[in-house]
UniProtKB/TrEMBL annotation:
Family (UniProt): Belongs to the threonine aldolase family.
Sites bearing N6-(pyridoxal phosphate)lysine, chain numbering: K202
UniProt domain Aromatic amino acid beta-eliminating lyase/threonine aldolase: residue ranges: 3-285
Keywords from the UniProt entry: Lyase, Pyridoxal phosphate
GO terms classed as biological process: glycine biosynthetic process; L-threonine catabolic process
Cofactor(s) annotated in UniProt: pyridoxal 5'-phosphate
Record-given protein name: Aromatic amino acid beta-eliminating lyase/threonine aldolase domain-containing protein
GO cellular-component term (any): cytosol
GO MF annotation: an example: L-allo-threonine aldolase activity
SUPFAM superfamilies tied to this protein: PLP-dependent transferases (SSF53383)
Length: 345
């Protein structure tokens, strides 16, 4: 069975897991005046993440959802407006900050352009007409097919937001796939945002964890929100040690995942009833299989019968995600199954 449901399925290597045995553990919940805990492995990971993104500080979270949620709640008060794009993961899947019983924030959606990049004209229209507390972007962009936002567009968004005095938060769950695809350093990308969340538990292969990187002063506010959301941890070095391994060993190899996705997209471009959505730039492919007359759930069911696990996304599409445990041979098998399904009609 070839499992392309998500890169969250990636398994940690033995070498990664063995780092836990040497981790300098402590109680991360017992903090000093700067909010730092007593787990030295956590502190080391946070320092590395901050250095790599060019920020003053970083905060470890058990999940990306909690990281994004803590950051957004630290920026905003209940009732304030947050700009998100129409297909943003924070808006469609996480939803916590917009839940009327929890975050109580109001989403204001901006459009993506024909390249599935944030539309600057639409952003300006909103910023000129409404009082916005925070602007959120996503890089890579999940539901558009892993689109990478280039530095030129990041810079333009940053300058536009600065013009209106609005901070920018980036959901960079798969940021390092974008970094590798664009051939840039993480700090180059992150200088155009005030805060960024990235996951170590997806393509980077760690079993759990995400980090939010930002200024030192803002990190204190984020730590307060993390505690309110139940994110204070104890011997969290068991999370941090594999995370350190991931950031020091697994970034460059993300190019293999991006390459497998690009190969699959090229092999599928000529199908009659199944279309690759958007331009494949990283490790995600979104397919539109509506030409087969099947719902996304039905399509995924037929794929599973033939040995391919994939996931429905949005209302009418399916998603394939490539990661370390998926070889080129697995990729070829997935392509063969999708081509076979395309001939059903």
């Amino acid at each position: 069975m070839v499992d392309l449901r998500s890169d969250t399925i990636s398994m940690p290597t033995r070498e990664m897991l063995e780092t836990i045995l040497e981790a300098k553990l402590g109680d991360d919940g017992r903090t000093d005046s700067k909010g730092r805990g007593e787990d030295l492995a956590v502190n080391e990971l946070e320092d590395l993440a901050a250095e790599m993104t060019g920020k003053e500080a970083a905060v470890l979270f058990p999940s990306g959802t909690q990281g994004n949620t803590s950051a957004i709640l630290a920026y905003c008060r209940p009732g304030q407006k947050v700009m998100v794009d129409e297909m943003q993961h924070i808006y469609l899947s996480e939803k916590v900050v917009f839940d009327p019983s929890i975050g109580q924030l109001e989403p204001v959606t901006y459009k993506l352009d024909q390249d599935n990049l944030p539309d600057l004209d639409d952003m300006r229209r909103i910023l000129e007409s409404q009082e916005i507390a925070l602007l959120c972007i996503e890089n890579t962009h999940n539901f558009s097919g892993g689109t990478c936002v280039p530095l030129e567009r990041m810079k333009a968004i940053h300058e536009l937001a600065k013009e209106f005095g609005v901070p920018v938060h980036m959901d960079g769950a798969r940021m390092f796939n974008a970094v590798v695809a664009l051939g840039v350093e993480a700090r180059e990308m992150c200088k155009y945002v005030d805060s960024v969340m990235f996951c170590i538990s997806k393509g980077l292969g760690a079993p759990i964890g995400s980090l939010v990187c930002c200024s030192e002063a803002f990190s204190m506010k984020i730590r307060d929100k993390r505690k309110l959301l139940g994110g204070a941890m104890r011997q969290a070095g068991v999370i941090a040690a594999p995370g350190m391994y991931a950031l020091t060993h697994n970034i460059e190899r993300l190019a293999e995942d991006n390459a497998n996705a690009a190969y699959a997209a090229e092999q599928l471009k000529d199908l009659k009833n199944t279309k690759v959505y958007g331009k494949v730039m990283s490790n995600i492919i979104v397919l539109d299989a509506n030409g087969l007359g099947l719902t996304p759930g039905e399509y995924c069911g037929k794929a599973a019968e033939k040995g391919l696990l994939i996931k429905p996304v949005l209302k009418d599409k399916v998603r394939l995600v490539f990661y370390r445990d998926i070889s080129r041979e697995d990729t070829e098998k997935a392509v063969a199954i999708i081509r076979e399904l395309d001939s059903l009609r």
